[in-house]
Amino acid sequence: MSDLRNAGKYYWHYLKRYWRGFIVSMVLIAFSTWCIVVAPTYLGRAVEQLTTYLQQWSAPATRGQASLTPFNHTLIIYILLYVGDASTIFISSLILARVTAHSTGTMRVGLFRKLQRMKVQYFDTHSDGDVLARFTSDLDNIFNAMNQALLEILLAVAQFVGLLIVMFNQNATMAWVTMASTPLALLIAALVMRKAGVAVNQQQDDIGKLNGYINEQITGQKVLITNGLQQDSLKGFAGYNAKVRQSALTGQIWSGILNPLMQGMSLLNTAIVIFFGSWFALNGSLSTGAALALVVVFVNYAQQYYQPIMSLTSLYSMIQLAITGARRVDEVRNQPEETNPAQGHEMPAIQNGLKIDDVHFSYLPGKEILHGVSIDVHRGEMVALVGPTGSGKTTVMNLMNRFYDVDQGAITLDGTDIRQFDLQSLRANVGIVLQEPQLFTGTIADNIRYGDPQAGMDRVIDAAKQANIHDFITSLPAGYDTRVSDEQSVFSAGQKQLMSIARTILTNPRLLILDEATSNVDTVTEARIQAAMDNVIQGRTSFVIAHRLKTILNADKIVVLRNGQVIEQGNHQALLAEDGFYAELYRNQMVFD
Amino acid sequence: MKVLMPYFRRYHRDVWLALLSVIVLVFATLWQPRLLQVVMEAIIKNDQQTVFQQGLFLLGLAVLGIIGGIVNTIYSARVALGVATDLRADLYAHVQSLAFADVEKFSASNLVVRMTNDINQVQQIVMAGFQQITRIPLLFIGALILALVTMPQQWWVILAMMAIILLVCLVAVKRMTKYFGQTQQDIENVNTVARENLMGIRVVKSFVQEGNEIKKFSGASDELTNVTAKIGYWFAILMPAFFLTANLAVGVAVYIVGQNITTHPAYLAAITSFISYLMQILFAVINGGFLMTFASRAFISMGRIGEVLETEPSMTYVSGDDQPVQGDVTFEHVTFTYPGDDHPTLSDVSFTLKAGTMLGIVGATGSGKTTLAQLIARLYDPDSGQVKVGGVDVRQLPEKALRSTVAYVLQRSTLFSGTISGNLKQVQPDASVSHMQWAANVAQASEFIERLPQTYDAPVEERSQNFSGGQQQRLAITRGVIANPKILILDDATSALDARSEKLVQEALDRDLKETTTVVIAEKISSIINADQILVLDHGRVSGVGTHHELVANNAIYQAIYQTQKAREEGTVNE
């Protein structure tokens, strides 16, 4: 129920600005409903008038009076009513199509805007696939429900109400007869839908397990083949597949049976109406013409009567999906955003240095990762962070440009807490090179000037030269205009990393962080990237997080982190002389003659 | 369709029952207006007896219709599920019979989609097929015939109605197909921007490009919005146009009946039936259109499934003795090119490896190290030359014999979900706990396994994600050694281990698997420095073979790699 309320709120938020369109549509729909429910009475009247005409014409005494004019007039009204219906439905469909498309567009962009303001933590704790699904399937479901269900629901409700009014106006007894089977139909529908809900859930569970199994096995096909495990894999598959067969059969039957049942109920209802209608016509005090008209009109109503119920039941699952979708997108809308100080200063040039002062930090409450880390960096120094996986090296980088904020302690620049700087100014002045060189669709030049789209070609080329990638780029047929797309990569990991270094050079950051920038390449490529990195580091205050020690031997200071604490610091020579953890790491990684 | 025929034959009883019940259902639907006409005639004649009798018929007919609907759903579901599960099972079995190159050709994720989504599409279309697709043509033809029987003179009204509807359809479909194609492209663009931003959120934020990314995304999104709106507008025309046409046809028909009522007085009772049939024709056409678009997607899925089933395994095995062979390996002028590649990944590679010795393979990324190892495990066959294991060309070895001889441990060969012992017993079905302990000892894994509450029966989650990277590799090595293979290939399999554990693994291999030939692929020279011989690969060619000392002395590429990892003399302390 709270899902429904949240979904309602979500739709309301995005749809309220279209209230004028909705009101116009409602009026049009009310009019079209009036046309539709009134039209059968004109058909009935036409039949009645035709009967009278035939009777008058058949008797020689009254043949002279017989006239088709009233019949013709009735028919014209009948046709006009349907023209009215079609044109109003057309206009309201146009309006709703526009509202649907544009509100979905606003939702999509709204979601994207929100993502740009959210904390990095959200992206670290949710898989990309899950977040992306909110852009694709969830927004799709929201759209589908609006696109198909909105008009149908409005129409169904209006028609149902209109039908009841007109039926009771025409003949109360026959109206009751038409409605007689409704409780039974509703009961059946409720029962079947509940059964279907349970069965489909079970089916989805089992299908999920089967798909998970298939995915794991086929992704590990190399392991299956090299270990000769294909037969084992088949055996496991057969079990899951048999389960799906069972539960999906039940699921399909229950979810597939509602429509034929309702169609059957409609047939039954029409039969009842014909049966009672004709009995009523013969035993009442009606003329033949009026009796025929009564049957004609109510058969028409009986056929229409179940349509709103049928269209609502067929929309049920669509609406369910939309509610889930709205809940999932709304969840994102309520995520906390990054905080920017109200009157943040611009980050100034570094005078003395940067100080990490007794910093405590945890990603999850109660699971502290950094236990009071303090590091001093002087202007122009290169500081290296080393330590085993999980020691907290990358966490320090996360704190430095405020992807996360410290729990306790502070990071200060010349004595000012970095949280007092304007967030954008801080990030513009802290350059990072990440382990995964994420590039964006566009040209090489676009990627290098990513941080400053206004930069001219001279600056792009200059940055590429410093990153030792200019020669490679000019050797490509399209040079700097070569298209980059992250999926079908024509570039090696090393080349991509050099481009990302060029990208950072171009923004000329005051503080530089290199986060394991060479951990995905072989040692020969590493040496090439190292040269580029040396160019960037030159004259800048920098942090280098390293897995391989070879890259940081020249650092002014090496800080060894282990289990969230600084255990050793000093330069390479000093640390080797200490013969502690660093010395051991070094001996393990290097080859000695 | 051809793909499905054998499966339909397998469920022929269910198929016939589903079809039969559709016919019952259609009959009940179409015959009702007919009976209505009889009732109307009876009212005109004031014939109570007939009205009562026909009324009972009508009720009976409706009940028959309901039963037909229920039976139809049950048997349609049985056929759909039978066909889908059997097809999925055959598809899975077929994929398991394929060679690794064939799996690569399709890509694993693509095969998974075919076994899940595509099969699901087929299941839905089969279900819809027996519920709807068979019903619609029957309804259409039946209603058409009955409409003509009811008022033969009005054939041209029916014809005109169908012609107009068809014309509207054609125009709309033509426009909309264009827009649908555009939508696909626009969706792709929107998703690309979204995906890149999710993956690169740190880059976006650290370069402060949120504003530009929003602009980029809005642009892509607006294009999608505009096309969606256009499709919506066409749909807005479609439905009212259909119903208006049908209702105009009704009006015209009734008008004509009225003008000729004196010559055909019987038509008075037939008006309602005739209208019902016209509406049935209209519904049949509309539903037919919807199903057509639905079916076209299913046909694509069927094609994709058929494509896999028709792929012959590109590798076959001889049958014969399943016993493992000796552990020596020989490459004779081996050249190998990946399917679809221009350049060979391995060119003219030759070397000999004696049983029980250790070979290290080094080279830059992309030099062909993994490819070479995969040829030993016969994941691929060479273009030319021979790979021999135990003196026999691997192509002449029965599958079981080869698999029990060679154990291949990959950098990311995670265990499958289940338990640790379950994974180990897949390779060595009769492994006792003490044997598992032995293998875990070799891999330096026993220390953490024995700290787990359920030790060897501890659960392994999907992608082994409840273990750290180093633990995953040690578990994979445990699985690799448990069957005491003649040949053990470690393909960057110790990259997440610290140097001390790595050294201990190598010592244990030397001690406990003396007879085993080991092939070690590594980034770090320190991993292979003690190998009996080291093979240096450069762009798929053997640049040198020898011991560490020999290569340091005379191989330039080895020297270059070594230089990047060598400690400076002044840095050494206790060496």
From TrEMBL, chain A:
CDD domains: ABC_6TM_Tm288_like
InterPro entries named in the record: AAA+_ATPase (IPR003593), ABC1_TM_dom (IPR011527), ABC1_TM_sf (IPR036640), ABC_transporter-like_ATP-bd (IPR003439), ABC_transporter-like_CS (IPR017871), P-loop_NTPase (IPR027417), Type_1_exporter (IPR039421)
Localization in the cell: Cell membrane
Molecular function GO labels: ABC-type oligopeptide transporter activity; ATP binding; ATP hydrolysis activity
Domain ABC transmembrane type-1 intervals: 23-321
Membrane spanning residue stretches: 21-43, 75-97, 149-168, 174-193, 271-299
Pfam annotation, one family: ABC_tran
Domain of life: Bacteria
Keywords: ATP-binding, Membrane, Nucleotide-binding, Transmembrane, Transmembrane helix, Transport
Stretches assigned to the ABC transporter domain: 354-588
Predominant subcellular localization, coarse grouping: membrane
Protein name per the record: ABC superfamily ATP binding cassette transporter, membrane protein
Organism: Levilactobacillus acidifarinae DSM 19394 = JCM 15949
TrEMBL record, chain B:
Domain (ABC transporter): residue spans on this chain: 329-564
Keywords on record: ATP-binding, Cell membrane, Membrane, Nucleotide-binding, Transmembrane, Transmembrane helix, Transport
Gene Ontology molecular function, alphabetical: ABC-type oligopeptide transporter activity; ATP binding; ATP hydrolysis activity
Protein name per the record: ABC transporter, ATP-binding and permease protein
SMART domains (UniProt xref): AAA (SM00382)
Membrane topology: Multi-pass membrane protein
Domain ABC transmembrane type-1: 16-297
Gene Ontology cellular component terms for the protein in this record: plasma membrane
Keyword Nucleotide-binding: yes
Naturally occurring in which organism (per UniProt): Levilactobacillus acidifarinae DSM 19394 = JCM 15949
Domain of life: Bacteria
Predominant location category: membrane
Annotated transmembrane regions: 15-31, 51-71, 133-149, 155-173, 231-256, 268-294
Stored CDD domains: ABC_6TM_Tm287_like
Entry keyword Protein biosynthesis: no
UniProt subcellular location: Cell membrane
InterPro entries for this protein: AAA+_ATPase (IPR003593), ABC1_TM_dom (IPR011527), ABC1_TM_sf (IPR036640), ABC_transporter-like_ATP-bd (IPR003439), P-loop_NTPase (IPR027417), Type_1_exporter (IPR039421)
